[in-house]
Amino acid sequence: MGETYVDVRRGEYHDSVSLMSASLVLAKVPGIAEAQVAMGTPLNLGLLAERGFDVPAGTGAGDLVVAMRVADLPGQRAESVLSLAADRLDEVLRAQAPEAGGDGGAAPAPRTVGGLLTRTPARLALVSVPGEYAFAEAMDAVRAGSSVMVFSDNVPVWQEVALKEEAARRGVLVMGPDCGTAQIDAAGLGFANVVEVGPVSIVAASGTGAQHLMCLLDAAGLGVRHVIGVGGRDLSAEVGGRSTRQALDALAGDYDTRLTVVVSKPPDPDLVARLRQEARDRRQSVLWAPVGPGERDLTAVAEDVLRAFEIPAPDWPQWRPPTPLAATPGRALRGLFCGGTLCTEAATIAGAALPADRFTMTDFGDDAYTRGRAHPMIDPTLRTERFVHDAADPDVGTVLLDVVLGHGSHPDPAADLAPAVAAARANVVVSLTGSNGDPQVRDDQAAALAAAGAHVHLSNAAATRHAISLLT
After folding, report:
1. Beta strands at 259-264 and 286-290: parallel, antiparallel or unpaired
2. What are phi and psi of 415, to 5 degrees?
3. Which DSSP letter does residue 150 get?
């Protein structure tokens, strides 16, 4: 297993996005078998204990915990590995720290979002802290007169409602909680793809659903202007579409947006009926695209959008492996996803074609899998471990995976996944969401995965149908 090392830095706070990046950097240091950098919340301490790390008593939520497991190495070599890892960690955290300012020395850093906005007013704040602390920070921003994107997940629904009610009273917008993707005037926030600017805007109660749609449209030559994330629960009966209504109102006055698409996980039908009527009353051009049973898949939605602009739908890109995939004795389909909406879409398609006992679809981006861990689009370790297991199972004929590119995502997911693909006994089909403008470069990632033996599709729906076709 290797020796464990735990360092507690008292009173040193960093946001969750910074800590996700730091954990990923440490895990890539040669000789480090496992690494986790997290604040010392009770949840995180429990997860570290489960992984065999002995955290000193008295560690609290305001303390930074650095936990590493070193591969079995000679003593001196292990010390060198730990020293290198510590240096890398300091580099990452320094690069993400706020700049000192003021004459005659560094000004004290604001201790709240409201304090920061008082010093430096802004129209939009991004909150990315553990879920139990997000409400206070987001409410602070709203009361300071700023719209806010709440990247944090695991926020109770009553807090979401309270935030959005306060935002409506103050004329600002809350995106989220659990808002992973936004694009405002072509500037990406959170997990964001690089696409051309165009006449389509997206209101998204689904992060990866929005990313998938914008990348399909970009591949067809149609650009996207805004993506306003509202959080996956916004179109539920409990939340009542509060942010969706505000977003649609705002886009109705944006003359550069000629068509708005609302992408969501399965919404409350009565709520959507009311919002549809409101859009009709103001003569706003809105295409509704909920994902789930009885609804059109996102590739079909993209084709609907293209038709509205009299653009022919292309043959959606796919990349074939050197040896064609073939049906195998395995009868089961396993879907292992980072994106919740892509998982829902795949499950809907599979459910219409296969008995329920022949497929399972797992969303590794669900809150149950991300407590105390980086999102799998950043650190896919947990998903890769499951893939290795399922791809070796003789009962499994095909494993279906999604890979989501863009800013904020893993810098080279194909390099991480390709060895496991090459070793798989089962067929491997990949749904790839990304553009050639993304830092990872879509075509390069696709080529590497195909060379390893996967059949890669830009369309998640096409990938799912191809995966099903390979079962016997």
Report:
1. parallel
2. -65, -35
3. E
Q: Is the pLDDT of residue 4 over 90?
A: no
Three-state DSSP class for 6? strand
Tokens representing 272 are 């959507």
User: Taking a C-beta distance cutoff of 8 angstroms, is the pair 359, 330 a contact?
Assistant: no
CB-CB contact of 163 with 138 (8 Å): yes
Q: Helices (H), strands (E): how many in the chain? A: 16, 18
**pLDDT on residue 116:** 64
Let me know: does 426 contact 399? Beta carbons within 8 Å.
Answer: yes
Per-residue model confidence (pLDDT) at position 131: 81
> CB-based contacts of 310: which residues, under 8 Å, 6+ apart?
none
**Highest mean pLDDT (candidates 67-76, 114-123, 353-362):** 353-362
* 229 alpha-carbon distance from chain centroid: 12
192 DSSP assignment = B
Under 8 Å between Cβ of 301 and 261: yes
Return d(Cα 17, Cα 129) in angstroms, integer: 8
pLDDT over threshold 80, residue 110: no
The reported pLDDT for the residue numbered 100 is 46
Least trusted range by pLDDT, from 5-14, 116-125, 252-261, 317-326: 116-125
**Percentages (nearest 5) of helix, strand, coil residues in the chain:** 40, 20, 40
- The whole-angstrom separation of Cα 92 and Cα 25 is 8
Q: Are strands 200-205 and 224-229 parallel, antiparallel or unpaired?
A: parallel
8-35: burial string, b at 16+ Cβ within 10 Å, e else:
beeeebbbbbbbbbbbbbbbebebbbbb
Cα radius of gyration (the chain): 23
pTM of the model: 0.83
